[in-house]
Design a protein that fits this description.
single chain, alpha/beta, TIM Barrel, 13 helices
């Protein structure tokens, strides 16, 4: 089945005020993302999403649109939608990086294949290894102490048992924030912290030691990108387990994490890894070395969130039971771009067993929020 047309839809979706994100990367109040539609000669269409964020991946909604329209689309129009791996490798040869733009095309191809075969994407990935309802943690911004305390209590009341607290800003304020959250929720709930590359190794170790009595279970990305040795040093020095995220975008970077014994778990997800197939490859590679994977997030809309859920459902090493992920992006946003939003109830998100990604974009809503 040949690709006949690729169309990009840049959208602007505000976050709900109570979900505004603050981290070492700055503030995130409005999502400017790209939806991508792929049409075929048989009238079976697929959709993908580029969850771009310039401070994180280096991509913008405009750069993603430009590279898809000017570089990728002319090269892959006319190609067979079944050759997902070949198309992905072709895009890699044409442009370095641009993970989220590539992912939007790749997940649309999976959507098409699932619809063509009348099966959900997780069946195409080998079949389900866990339930379609996934329990998540909640990623809470680097809020002032009192807001963090209040928000933590609200999250526990909603049923969350794991709360991720953003740090990596001011170490003194970070420590106070985490302490406030622990005091607010007591000892029966799990706290993880995420520095988003905001610390160097020495600062990360110092912060972790100051928080030793707070029983932090996991320290996510405590060191800068590319500092695999520094990440390994933090892992060796602290009691909490260490997650690699911003430092691992592709298979080679996953190998570097493993060579350095840099982490206990790696955060993977289709957007960051340029597609579902590449996320599956990383999860399989790390399983061979007894390193777990979990699902990360870039505050996705329903389209990319569905792709994330299919990955989790299909791969055993996506150990969300031990290391809950945060596929909560749709709930952060004030508007859904699909007709039947993914079901989010408290800490759980559920995907359907409908063919493809299992979502149906509401193009009227998309049109109303075009940039």
């Amino acid at each position: 089945m040949k690709i006949t047309k690729i169309t990009c839809f840049p959208v602007r979706i505000p976050l709900k005020p109570e979900y505004h994100m603050i981290s070492a990367l700055g503030q995130h109040q409005v999502s400017k993302y790209l939806l991508v539609s792929i049409e075929t000669e048989r009238g079976i269409n697929g959709v993908g999403e580029a969850t771009v964020m310039p401070r994180w991946s280096g991509e913008t909604v405009w750069s993603a649109k430009a590279i898809i329209e000017e570089i990728f689309a002319p090269a892959i129009t006319g190609l067979d939608t079944d050759d997902i791996e070949g198309i992905s490798k072709l895009m890699d040869r044409m442009a370095i990086g641009n993970w989220f733009a590539k992912s939007a095309i790749e997940m649309a191809l999976w959507d098409i294949r699932g619809k063509e075969q009348d099966v959900p994407v997780y069946e195409l990935l080998g079949g389900p290894v866990r339930d379609r309802t996934i329990t998540c943690r909640f990623s809470m911004g680097a809020y002032p102490v009192e807001r963090a305390r209040t928000r933590a209590r609200e999250l526990v009341e909603k049923g969350f048992t794991t709360i991720k607290v953003k740090v990596g800003t001011n170490p003194e304020e970070d420590v106070a924030r985490v302490r406030a959250v622990r005091e607010a929720i007591g000892d029966d709930y799990e706290i993880v912290i995420d520095a988003n590359c905001g610390f160097d190794a020495d600062t990360a170790i110092d912060v972790a030691r100051q928080l030793a009595d707070c029983n932090v279970a996991l320290f996510e990305q405590p060191t800068p990108r590319d500092d695999y040795a520094g990440l390994a040093r933090v892992r060796e020095a602290i009691d909490a387990e260490v997650m690699a995220d911003d430092i691992c975008f592709d298979l080679n970077q996953a190998r570097e994490c493993l060579r350095n014994n840099a982490c206990d778990v790696i955060s993977v997800y289709p957007g960051k890894n340029a597609g579902i197939r590449q996320s599956m490859e990383i999860a399989s590679l790390t399983a061979e070395q007894n390193v777990a994977c979990s699902i990360g997030s870039n505050l996705e809309l329903d389209v990319a969130s569905a792709a994330m859920c299919h990955l989790v459902v299909a791969h055993k090493n996506m150990q969300v039971e031990r290391f809950p992920g945060d596929i909560m992006g749709p709930d952060y946003h004030s508007v859904s771009v699909v007709k039947e939003p993914l079901v989010i109830e408290g800490p759980t998100i559920t995907i359907t067993d409908r063919p493809g990604l299992g979502i149906d974009v509401d193009w009227d809503v998309v049109s109303a929020h075009l940039i």
